[in-house]
Amino acid sequence: MESRIKQKERKEQTKRLIEIGAIFEHHFEITSEEEAEKIAWGFKKIVTNRKDDLSRLSIEELKKQGERELQKK
To answer: Within a 10 A sphere around the Cβ of 48, how many other Cβ atoms?
Structure first.
């Protein structure tokens, strides 16, 4: 019984990691592990400092903010 629970937890973790990786690959056009690692280190400080603020916003609000930022450039 315990091994089934652990196996289910591993499958859930694997699924979650794949989904998260797919999101980052899509939004940042990541093509390699090395590139993903570099981007992760680049975002680490920003995310660490703003995680609470970002968590309070809806996805729609964050999308709008991102689109406004892109239009400024």
So the answer is: 8
